[in-house]
Amino acid sequence: MSTRSNNLTWAVIISACVMGGAMAVDRTLLSNSDAALPGRAIAEVPILMYHRVDALPTDAATMVRRMTVSPDELREHSRWLRDEGFNTISFAQLDAYFRGEFTLPEKPIILSFDDAYDEHYHVVAPILKRFQLGGTFFIHTDWIGQYDCLTWDQTRHMASAGFEIGSHTRTHPLLTALDDRALRSELRDSRSEIARQLGVPPAIVAYPFGESDERVQQAARSAGYSMAAGTRDGSFQRAGERYNLRRIEIRSGDDTQTLKRLIGGAPRSTLRG
Ligand SMILES: [Zn+2]
Fold first, then answer.
1. Domain around 64
2. Does any domain span residue 118?
3. For the segment 57-93, what is each residue's pLDDT rounded down to a tens digit?
4. Is residue 271 part of a domain?
5. Which of 23, 141, 164, 227 sits in a 20 to 30 Å window from 194, CA-based?
6. How far away, in angstroms, is 23 Cα from ligand 1 center?
7. 22 CA distance to ligand 1 middle (Å)
8. How many angstroms does the Cα of residue 126 sit away from the middle of ligand 1?
9. How many distinct structural domains can be found in the chain?
10. Ligand 1 mean position to 208 CA, how many Å?
11. Which tens digit of pLDDT belongs to each residue from 99-154?
12. Domain of 202: which CATH number?
């Protein structure tokens, strides 16, 4: 299952992810239900976005290289986050904070991992556990148990170990290109499948390629998600943008100094990589 035989498939998905992120639509969706308690409309909660966490094959394509962090790098990041006193929270807790039902810890941060790679179970979860960090894993449900994706058993283990599982739709399509019916199915059916498999519906969906527009964000709300994550840069989260939260892309070669600058709000484009 972990062979590189479908590197090409992943390379296509990953490169589309990155390119989509660069074109992400910067729109917010405001409505009464997005209103936050006074003083809670904005919070400094950096959300880190990882993809593969694996040793790089020597012939890795540029995009694979860019989106792959080595286990040693993740270990180094985790140690640094712990030593600097960061406290991981879940998306569900961020949502509860906006609603006035959760108090943020000092230096809150969310660690998120996209695309359901099986090393998220074998490598990432043990590293996070070792450094007492939480994490959120975004899975595209139709792919679970196929290729080198997680299985439902592994996903259940991770959920029962306290990690948050979020939806990454059913098939990882570009949501803005779908008709209403397909859009609804990608959002609703992935949510209900996770609820069926894990016993709890996910609070959050991450848009494939980071792409959304007002119609997609409205559909995410209608499907029952409390929040949705995009790929726009930034460390501050706003209640009015809860259907397009900001995330910081972490790339191969990012050391803790880079991490520190990104978390501090430096735009990715000003840094190396
Ligand atoms: Zn993805």
1. 45-265
2. yes
3. 788 888 888 899 999 999 999 999 999 999 999 999 9
4. no
5. 23
6. 15
7. 14
8. 22
9. 1
10. 5
11. 999 999 999 999 999 999 999 999 999 999 999 999 999 999 999 999 899 999 99
12. 3.20.20.370
